Amino acid sequence: MRLFALELILSLLDVRGHIPRFDDFRPAPAAPPPAGAARALAAATAVFAALALAIWGLVWLAVNLL
């Protein structure tokens, strides 16, 4: 389920790529990271924050109902 969620996020942000073969690795000059990586990091941070808030809310609700 985790891999499906990660694949869904990456496909929605259009940062999915292909798995390169061994001969696809060629020396290249250093380049700045693509903008897609920053978007993926922002999306992962947002998902993590939403899950943390949901868990916090459930614990808060459970403590108040006891």
Spell out the helices and strands N to C: HH
Straight-line N-to-C gap: 32 Å
Q: If you compute it from the alpha carbons, what radius of gyration comes out, rounded to the nearest whole angstrom?
A: 18 Å
Structural class: mainly alpha
Broad shape: elongated
* Helical residue percent band: 55-70%
Strand content: under 5%
Could you walk me through the main structural features you see in this protein, from its secondary elements to its overall organization?
Helices cover 64% and strands 0% of the residues. With 66 residues, it is mostly helical. The longest helix has 31 residues, at 35-65. Keywords: Membrane, Transmembrane, Transmembrane helix. This is Transcriptional regulator. The chain crosses the membrane at residues 41-63.
